[in-house]
Amino acid sequence: MFSRCSPDVLQTFSRRSPDVLQMFSRCSSDFLQMFSRCSPDVLQTFSRCSPDVRLSARVVTSGEVDLRPSLLLQPPLMKDEKVDLSLKPLPPPPVIISSPAASWIKASGEEPVSAEMSFLSVLLPPTGLLLLLLLSFMSSVDGSESSVPHPISCVTRGADLTEDGVVLLCPPDCTQGGGSVFGTGVYASVSSVCGAAVHRGVLGPSGGPVRIHKLQGRHNYMSSYTHGIQSQPLSQWSASFRLTKPVNVPLELTSVTSTTALPAAERPVKKPQKKPSVKKALTGGNKDCQIDIAMLIDSSNNIGQRRFNLQKNFVVKLVSMLRVGPTGPHVGLIQASDSPQIEFLLTNYTQPKELTFAIKEVSYLGGNTNTGKAIMQAAETFFLQENGGRRGHPRVMMVLLDGWPSDDLEQAALLARESGINVFLVSVAKPVPEELAMVRDKDFMKKAVCKDNGFFSYLIPGWFTTTKHVRPLSQRLCSLDALLCSKTCYNSVNIGFLIDGSSSVGEGNFQLVLDFLVGITRSFEVSDVGARVGAVQFTYEQRLEFGLFDHHDKEEAITALKRIRYMSGGTSTGEAISYTTNKLFRRTGPGRNFLIVVTDGQSYDDVRHPALEAQKQGITIYSVGVAWAPLDDLRAMSSEPKEGHTLFTRDFTGLTEFIPLIVRGICRDFTESN
User: Fold this and answer.
1) Where do the VWFA domain residues begin and end (predicted)?
2) DSSP run (H or E) holding 426
């Protein structure tokens, strides 16, 4: 409405200072003409003011109060200057203009006035009345901006919100571990809303309310570093948003009382606040392929612009087949050229459509095929947790080559293998003679891949035949058991604890045993795709406390261990070993199963035969004896070599010293058998 007023009027209203009266007193004689250029809709705005303002307007227009507009429009008084306050006849009324405002101000028995004068009568009452009207008007404007903030998380993106202009409540500390931000001032809708708000300076690190304004997509989102957040560039995106700090936003619903109640018919109906709806994730991803993948594509002079585009199309088809999602595979992308260039990290895009768009947006670089340099950088930083790497998840680097690399891969590949990264090398088309003469190492494929067994290298005859290779390559990438370079003892073993709960142990010592087992558990990466832990307690009887597949992370497993209740009874260790072999390890394969037996006395049954049967099924046994446990029984249970798998201490407090010995022993055994 006010956009059709003169700029002077807008500037006057924008100040909202306590000196509003003085501002009006300094207005020029053209003051009336400025307001006469406003549309009639402005008058309707004042019709929604409080009842006090309505009443004041009626009093003013009825002639009961001398407005003295000529006095109010005079310049400011000089020192010792006096003003004539005597009443003088009012000027004759101007010509009446038919408008909604005239009928609004008209009271019973009164004549309507012109739109200009009726509007002026509202704006120029005596001093106190003028201030009341302005404050009422400003509060109505502020009230239109206020709304109850809707809480969101640090990773909520603009694309996740369906409504425009809503107020959102950001949590604190979104500068640490929040989502990515793309752009400066105007942000791509794939950006974190709270991260963008901090980057813009609308919010501080402590969080708070922010208003989102949706915009159309644009080109060339610029990167910058401000307020502790680094935004990233983006060549284009389909939608954008900007952020402002809302005015007078309550943190909870409040009510405002009025001095004069409106009749029931005139009371505005307060509509309930509608919370902005947040889109649910389109897909969770392939849970059978929970891996982190770094796609390293060729952007050198060898490939050229045309084949570079074919390469991107191949990668798009491959990630579509992988079924990327928050609980499935995560994909990031790096370009190999003179210097490696990271295009996006593992958690920047976890939905297929967004990821596809981002891949298609990648621009061709040119330059040499320095694949070794790119592998080196990716191995050092790409899979770090702060860059989106997930603990306990297999790491895969798929390297696409058009021809042969320009630099040496041996040292880079060695670093990748030692970092637990499975390097797949996909070579498309054979090198031309000119390339062959420049290659430093013709055996680069054997040295670059995770293991030279044919599984980690893949040859494609040409870029026009890549489609039929998408499915078999995706199946290789998702073959978790074959990803040898990610298989370390810390994320691949199954550990069973066989706990003596006999009467000779006692309640206090039993807690020391549990603390010992918790210490071992903390050394491994327990997860659905990593290490697993289970426990059995025994006396004459056996009790499965929890299985290998019952708990999905380390903290769950540790909590379950701490909650084990002491049984008390006799000691039948041999029968307990047989029970554990059949119940705890029945769903697992050989080569990764370890059983740690903790006992403080002699078994009433034979332990040798059950232990041999367990070892035949691929279970490595560590026997830990305390106090009165006979050394012969301990050695009979333990795996070969006996010296490395048999431990003994006189007191339960000495168990903690065995934690590093057992962890190193498990890693040694795992490495030798795999």
Assistant:
1) 292-477, 494-662
2) strand 421-428
Per-residue model confidence (pLDDT) at position 520: 95
Give the pLDDT confidence score for residue 249 in this predicted structure. Answer: 56
CA-CA distance, 519 to 554, in Å (whole number)?
11
- The angle subtended at Cα 615 by Cα 612 and Cα 618, nearest 5°, is 160
Largest CA distance in the chain: 123
Residue 495: the pLDDT is 96
Helix (H) / strand (E) containing 545: strand 542-546
Q: How many CB atoms lie within 10 A of CB 452?
A: 13
Q: Which of 465, 543, 464 is nearest to 501 (CA)?
A: 543
Asked if 577 and 607 touch (Cβ cutoff 8 Å), the reply is yes
d(CA 36, CA 404): 78
Whether pLDDT at 236 is above 50: yes
CA distance 497 to 239: 54
- Which of 221-235, 405-419, 530-544 bottoms out in mean pLDDT, i.e. has the lowest? 405-419
Domains of the chain: 2-144 (no CATH), 150-244 (2.170.130.20), 292-486 (3.40.50.410), 489-673 (3.40.50.410)
Q: 124 vs 370, which has greater pLDDT?
A: 370
Max mean pLDDT among 54-63, 158-167, 440-449, 633-642 falls in 633-642
Residue 263 has pLDDT above 60, yes or no: no
Give the pLDDT of residue 525: 82
- Residue pair 371/303 in contact (Cβ under 8 Å)? The answer is no
Statement: residue 532 has pLDDT above 50: yes
DSSP codes joined into one string, 282-351: S----TT---EEEEEEE-STTTHHHHHHHHHHHHHHHHHHHT--TTS-EEEEEEESSS-EEEE-TTT--S
Contacts 24+ apart (CB under 8 A), 304-313: 305/364, 307/402, 307/463, 308/364, 310/463, 310/464, 310/466, 311/400, 311/402, 311/428, 311/463, 312/359, 312/360, 312/362, 313/466
Cα–Cα distance measured from residue 647 to residue 383, given in angstroms and rounded to the nearest whole number = 38
| Lookup result for tokens 């939905």 | 351
Beta-ladder partners of 401 = 427
Structure tokens at 252: 């909870």
Q: Give dist(CA 532, CA 593) in Å, integer.
A: 10
Question: Which value, in Å, is the radius of gyration of the alpha carbons in the chain?
Answer: 38
Q: Where are the beta strands (DSSP E) in 146-303?
A: 150-151, 167-170, 183-184, 186-188, 208-221, 225-226, 229-230, 234-244, 292-298
Q: What is the DSSP letter of 423?
A: E
Q: Give helix 659-673 / helix 507-521 axis angle, nearest 10°.
A: 40
Q: Which residues pair with 293 in a beta bridge?
A: 331, 396
Sheet (strand 494-500) strand order:
542-546, 532-538, 494-500, 593-599, 619-626, 646-649
C-alpha separations of 330 from 189, 393, 400, 473, 512 in Å: 20, 10, 18, 16, 41
pLDDT of residue 18: 42
CA distances from 72 to 23, 52, 92, 268 (A): 10, 22, 18, 34
Residue 62, pLDDT above cutoff 60: no
Dihedral sign computed on CA atoms, order 534, 537, 542, 543: negative
Report the run of H or E that residue 58 belongs to, with start and end. helix 51-61
Stretch 136-160: mean pLDDT: 67
Element (H, E) at 428: strand 421-428
- Per-residue pLDDT, averaged over 545-559, amounts to 93
Residue, of 457 and 553, whose pLDDT is higher = 553
Is the pTM higher than 0.85? The answer reads no
| N-terminal to C-terminal alpha carbon distance within the chain | 76
Q: Which comes out higher in pLDDT, residue 249 or 349?
A: 349
Please answer whether residues 595 and 496 qualify as being in contact, where contact means their C-beta atoms are separated by less than 8 angstroms.
yes
Query: What pLDDT shows up at residue 364?
Result: 93
